[in-house]
UniProtKB/TrEMBL annotation:
One of its GO terms (biological process) is peptidoglycan biosynthetic process. Its EC number is 2.4.99.28. This is Probable peptidoglycan glycosyltransferase FtsW. Its main location: membrane.
């Protein structure tokens, strides 16, 4: 596509970007449209909409999502941090606004309608939160004059309190788990990690006692006689009916009675129509992106990039795992989308932003540039190049 000697912006991007992750994300996006063509039409018809309403809207959202991901992937780490800060502050402000002026849906206030477009601000806060937390932990370990670790601990309650008030326990748990992963990866003592885990379990117990729909979901998961388990039972039936090879595209029947066949339970619809083998391939694709990201993070010599990439792929992998585990009844229902597969404009744009951050932070950069950036001095770093120094070069 471009010569390695070409110094244009696009040429440098092409030869420094990790093309394996880029291709895997593109495959997920295309697969999402294919699977949505199976799960979306029956739901649209039940709601009195045009047959391909959800598919066409997903395509409309996909174009700006791709543009956003590519544009963000051009950013150097410094501007990734700045962009994350702006997105975080804007998203947090909209989350608070949604508590007062957002529409109430199923007892929660999570959405805002702007210029006729409905957005879920918490979706955009997630990747920005990860990048900012990684930045703070990295600065705290690198510079003693910056209270980075304290601020990294403070940003967690600032973020999850509005989520609890919505309430959105699923997103609260997801953000808390990723924060704990970053806490551990930053090298802090295992005693603190265990303590935070205990606080998380206590918070879950409080949510079970005080929030009715959380108690209902956990009770139905533990005991089928405690309430309606129609969606989960139907999802399991989809896996049984599809078998290894599936019934074929468009031949599934479960999607006609599943209320969330195009969002939360699209994995089950995919199993019935395309088979368990395709579902396993989809799991492998998610796993590849996570493992590839962790591999690139391990090779990165800059603490901020290493932590941020670890957090972003952890966020991506855990969200995918939660959705798929709900579909096979391994955990209680959470109402969380399957990345790039489920229908949802806010989710798609948020994932594009997060993957844009990931691609930007995993781009290859000269070793000298990285060392200069992480050295806590303003003086040039001298390194030997034969008989010359880096300054001579």
């Amino acid at each position: 596509m471009a010569s390695r000697a070409e110094r244009t912006l696009v040429g440098e991007w092409w030869w420094t970007v990790d093309r394996a992750i880029l291709v895997a994300i593109a495959v997920l996006m295309v697969a999402g449209l294919v699977f949505l063509m199976g799960g979306g039409p029956p739901v649209a018809e039940r709601l009195g909409l045009s047959t391909f309403h959800f598919v066409s809207r997903q395509i409309v959202y996909l174009a700006p999502a791709v543009a956003l991901m590519v544009a963000v992937s051009f950013l150097p780490p410094r501007y990734v941090r700045r962009a994350a800060l702006l997105v975080y502050l804007g998203g947090l402000a909209m989350m608070i606004a949604a508590l007062y002026i957002g529409p109430e849906v199923k007892g929660s206030r999570r959405w805002l309608t702007l210029a006729g477009i409905t957005l879920q601000p918490s979706e955009f806060v997630k990747p920005a939160f990860v990048v900012l937390t990684a930045w703070l932990f990295a600065e705290g370990s690198r510079r003693r004059d910056v209270p980075g670790t304290f601020l990294a601990m403070l940003i967690l309650p600032v973020t999850i309190v509005p989520l609890i008030l919505q309430p959105d326990i699923g997103q609260t748990m997801l953000i808390s788990i990723v924060w704990g992963c970053l806490f551990f990866t930053a090298g802090l003592h295992i005693f603190w990690v265990a303590g935070i885990g205990g606080i998380g379990l206590f918070g879950l117990f409080v949510a079970y006692e005080l929030i009715p729909h959380v108690r209902d979901r956990i009770s139905r998961f533990m005991d089928k006689e405690a309430g309606d388990t129609f969606q989960v039972d139907t999802a399991l039936e989809a896996f049984a009916q599809g078998g290894w090879l599936g019934k074929g595209p468009g031949e599934g029947t479960v999607k006609r009675i599943l209320p969330d066949a195009h969002t939360d339970f699209i994995f089950a619809v995919t199993a019935e129509e395309f088979g368990i083998l395709v579902c396993i391939a989809l799991v492998c694709l998610f796993g590849f992106i996570v493992l590839r990201g962790l591999y690139l993070a391990q090779r990165n010599e800059e603490p901020f990039c290493r932590l941020a990439v670890t957090g972003l792929v952890t966020l991506f992998g855990i969200q995918a795992s939660i959705n798929m585990m709900v579909n096979v009844h391994l955990i209680p229902a959470k109402g969380m989308t399957l990345p790039f597969i489920s229908y949802g404009g806010s989710s798609l744009l948020s994932l594009a932003l997060g993957m844009g951050f990931l691609i930007a932070l995993t781009r290859k950069r000269p070793r000298a540039e990285i060392l200069d950036r992480i050295t806590p001095t303003r003086q040039p770093v001298k390194r030997s190049y034969g008989s010359r120094t880096a300054q001579d070069v």
